[in-house]
Amino acid sequence: MTKINKKSNIPTKSFLLAVFSVFGFWGIICSPLEAQAKEINQENVVYLVNQSRAEQNLKPLLINPELSKIAEDKAYDMVKNRYFAHTSPTGITPWYWFKQNNYNYKYAGENLAINYDDAEEEHLAWMNSPTHKRNILNSNFTEIGIATAVGVIEGKKSQVTVQIFAAPQTNIIAQAQNLSLSKKSTYILGAQTDGIKIEKTYLDNLNLKKENPLYEVIDANNKILTVAKSQSDKVVWTIAVLVLLMFFRDMVLDNIYTRKIRHKYSMANLIIFLLLFYILF
Fold first, then answer.
1. Which of 59, 133, 196, 228 stands 20 to 30 A from 166 (CA)?
2. Which strand (E) or helix (H) includes residue 161?
3. Lowest model confidence (mean pLDDT) among 72-76, 182-186, 195-199
4. pLDDT by residue (tens digit) across 18-55?
5. For residue 234, what are the contacts with CB-CB under 8 A and spacing of at least 6?
6. For 243-271, how does the pLDDT look when each residue is reduced to its tens digit (9 = 90+)?
7. CB pairs under 8 A, 24+ apart, for 198-203?
8. How far is CA 46 from CA 38, 119, 162, in A?
9. Is 174:94 a contact under the CB 8 Å cutoff?
10. pTM (predicted TM-score)
11. CA 207 to CA 196: how far, in whole Å?
12. Rounded Cα distance, 125 and 22, in Å
């Protein structure tokens, strides 16, 4: 009879168990860390912004608590009033929140996003849009504030993210677009100003001296849904209509009044036109 010596495999089992325990423990540690890195919060969003700026040799943006408060106010207002746009249904522009928080700015910008749950995906969507990327990489901006809020918008539970950029001192105005959010989809919305000089805000009903805003609405696949035109187009059409109305009025007066009276009306028309041109431009 041949005697067979059976070698114990207890050490091998112990080794494998130890290896699996280490990898299992590492997985337990890494999963929360990875989840935290993707979480949409101020720390992660600002980190991604400054990482993109560093790649372009731009100075990092500093977190300003005042801008964070402005972002919080805007996010809360969107959730409270159930809209996703730069300007609220009641006409409140992004720059209203700066005034409410006593922040006087020279340059300012706002990026909005909705229904993202991954900070990197959200940042990539912003960077794939020229308008939003321009905010993130704008060398004029020196400070930033971030806020998120969760609520129901158009019947859908939604999470909104607000990015506020600024450099202390001056005023601008923004135009809004309203989106249809019948389906729960991810969107981003951006507004920026590049040293645009505006005398006063829409709410104050004051003169617009110069404006050339550009806004984009894009979905998570980076497809541009809407590009809002500058309000200057509306101004041109308004003046054209007024000139036509004046012309037709003169034609009617030509058949009714004397040449002298018609001449007075023509002079009045010229004065009105010059005043409109001065006010609107």
1. 228
2. strand 156-168
3. 195-199
4. 544 544 544 544 444 455 668 999 999 999 999 999 99
5. none
6. 666 766 666 666 655 555 555 556 666 67
7. 198/171, 198/172, 198/173, 199/171, 200/171, 201/93, 201/95, 201/96, 201/99, 201/171, 201/173, 202/87, 202/91, 202/93, 202/173, 203/91, 203/92, 203/93, 203/96
8. 12, 10, 12
9. yes
10. 0.55
11. 14
12. 37
Residue with tokens 């805007």: 74
Query: Position of tokens 């929360």?
Result: 32
Measured in residues, the chain has a length of 281
Q: What residue type is assigned to position 226 of the chain?
A: T
For 216, residues 6+ apart whose C-beta sits below 8 A from its C-beta are 129, 130, 131, 132, 189, 190, 224, 226, 227
φ, ψ (nearest 5 deg) of residue 168: -55, 130
Assess contact for 262 and 250: CB atoms under 8 A: yes
